[in-house]
Amino acid sequence: MAVLPVRFTKTKRDKLAQVLWVLNWISIVTGIILFSLGIFLKVEINKRQDLMVERNLQSVPNMLIAVGLIACAINFLGGKICYDCVDTNKFLRWKLVMLPYIICTFFFTLSVLVGALMCYSMLGQLEESLTLGLRDAMRYYKDTDTPGRCFLKRTVDLLQIQFQCCGNKGYRDWFHIQWVSNRYLDMSQREVVDRLRSNVEGKYLMDGVPFSCCNVNSPRPCIQYQITNNSAHFNYDYQTEELNLWMRGCRQALLDYYTNIMHSIGLTVLIIWLFELSVLTGVRYLQTSLENVLRQGDPECESDGWLLENSFVETARTNFNIIKHLGKFNQINTASNGDPNIDRPSTAHYGPDNVPPKPSPTSS
Amino acid sequence: MAVLKVTFTKKNRDKLAQVLWVLNWVSVVTGVTLFSLGLFLKVEIEKRRELMSKEVDSVPNMLICVGLTACTINFLGGKICYDCVDTTKFLRWKLLMLPYIICTFFFTFCILVGALMCYSMRNDLEESLFLGLRDAMRYYKDTDTPGRCYIKRTMDMLQMQFQCCGNGGYRDWFHTQWISNRFLDMTNSEVVERLRSNVEGKYLINGVPFSCCGLHSPRPCIQHQITNNSAHYNYDYHKEELNLNRRGCRQALLEHYTQIMQSIGLIVLIIWLFEVSVLTGVRYLQTAMENVLRCGDPDSESDGWLLENSIADTARYNFNIIKNLGKCYQVDDDPNIDVPSTSQQAQENVPIKQIPVPR
């Protein structure tokens, strides 16, 4: 009782082969798309590497790149096979390769699915990586004279301007960090010394933010120092003032940005997975129907194509038995060689009637 | 003595017609390219319309018109060349072809003019930007005036995006009041002093908006009391180059647009050369087909040329035509001019005897 059998006439088989040839070439294009999506994601992550703590985020783009390349190769081979399947003679060339090819492609489509699911699961790792990365970037903002960290100020400023965000969760994060380097603090001033002394760790903290936090939509010139001090500025109340600085935190801004990208990529990969699966199904039908043609002997006759020759359960049992016997095969050889007492059927020839002799009565 | 004569066999003529058909369709694509270049330029200028005092739209409009006309002309040319393979079909187009070629010739001049305009637009643009930026800086503080409330945002985004400050430099902000009176504490004596010390009552400071801050500066941005060294620790404004953006926004925008214009101008020149070569091919095809018709045998060889006589002869001939066109009108008006008689006896070329007048 075959699984989903379909009857194919000669013309239908030919048409199926042609359609599959075209679809395989389209699949090569989708393989290239997968490859370029992987490259795009890699570039996007590398662009903001300074703001992320390394958390094995490169696995997803690498997976996509590898899967894209393999998809191109597999579908190129599939295209050649389907092109040859129109002619029964040429099919004989590929007869032995086709079943392994189909099994390989089946496992390959599983990896495409895994790739799509990884896109969605990456976001959790990304959030953690961004939180720690941004916290460190803000901490090293002032270290423009330390090699290896001298560009962090510029990176953070560009980020805040480009994504219209301020700080990690909000602008108040800047109040807990010393972002003005000691090189630019006048230690002879009493105010500065007082502030430094009033802090436990000796950090110069103030209620001010860098200029990149300033909101361009504000109707008044940007207030970036003494933000929480209403009396320092005319006609200003920091609790009602919403347009002065960017209100969003940069972690949320970056997360939203990457979530958009990952969702789009994940959706595209899922669609490509469905497409590959349908092409694989077509190739399976083509393979089984051509094998049945060869079994019947007449290239022009109708034949059945199916997904599995027997039901799922029987096929699973058959394959399981094959694997068990593969194991047993080794066992039998070693057991009979070692133990002479196992009851083995005799291979002697007892004359023309092949009747084994009566056992001779032993003297009691 | 024809100009650049080439002899065409039947096969050559057919091949020429087919090649020209393909080239005309390629020209339709280049016409679409011209159109989209004009559209792109228009959009780029519209994006920063607020910063320009007057519309600099002659060049994009020209490119858009030229692009559309090129599409139409080359579409017609494609149809004509497609029919030229067959001599009978060519008869349909025979009378139209010469006017078509003359029109296309003048049209290619338009393309050349369009390309040259791209390069000449710079001066117009510079003046427009100078006045526009000056006004934008003046209205920077008027975020409560309808019609001007977005100028602050436009100016800030411009200075951050192009990494520039002010019109010619950051000092332009020192001569403009960019802080609105709404945010000035009039009870503060310092503020009142400053307002009074200025002739026009403007609140001028040696400070700049935050968008002038340089991204590459190693220290936090100093945007107020820029020229006062003692107000900041370890600071000398003469030596400090990374603190603010050094470039003026006029220069930055001009460079941006000049780059765009130069690329567009180059593409238009290449398209012009292509169109001229297609036109030359069509001219050869037209003269070759006409000579075939003159010979009578559709399969014979024929000559194709650019001009039938030399350039001087052709120019003189056309000039005479135009002169005679003018003379035609003059003759009708004046009755005293000696007009040769057109009566029957005149055809025998015998002069009429004069009627003797009685003394």
Give a verbal description of the structure.
The complex is a heterodimer of chains A (364) and B (359). With 364 residues, chain A is mostly helical. Chain A is built from 7 helices and 2 strands, in the order E-H-H-H-H-H-H-E-H. A two-stranded antiparallel sheet of chain A has the order 1-2. With 359 residues, chain B is mostly helical. In chain B, 58% of the residues lie in helices and 2% in strands. In chain B, strands 1-2 form a two-stranded antiparallel sheet. Chain B is elongated and about 100 Å long. Chains A and B meet through helix 4 of A and helix 4 of B.
Stretches of chain A where pLDDT falls below 50 for ≥5 residues? none
What Rg of chain B, in angstroms, do the CA atoms define? 35 Å
Major beta sheet, strand line-up of chain B: 1-2
Helix coverage percent of chain B? 55-70%
Largest sheet of chain A: 2 strands, antiparallel
SSE inventory with pairings:
The complex is a heterodimer of chains A (364) and B (359).
Chain A: E1 6-8, H1 10-47, H2 59-84, H3 88-139, H4 152-163, H5 190-198, H6 250-296, E2 303-305, H7 312-338
Antiparallel strand pairs in A: 1-2
Chain B: E1 6-8, H1 10-47, H2 58-83, H3 87-138, H4 151-161, H5 189-197, H6 249-295, E2 302-304, H7 311-333, H8 344-347
Antiparallel strand pairs in B: 1-2
Helix pairs in contact in B: 1-2, 1-6, 2-3, 3-6
Tags for this entry?
heterodimer; A: 364 residues; B: mainly alpha; two-stranded antiparallel sheet; elongated; Photoreceptor outer segment membrane glycoprotein 2 (chain B); receptor (chain B); transmembrane (chain B)
Quick structural gist:
The complex is a heterodimer of chains A (about 375) and B (about 350). Chain A has helices at about 10-45, 60-85, 90-140, 150-165, 190-200, 250-295, 310-340; strands at about 5-10, 305.
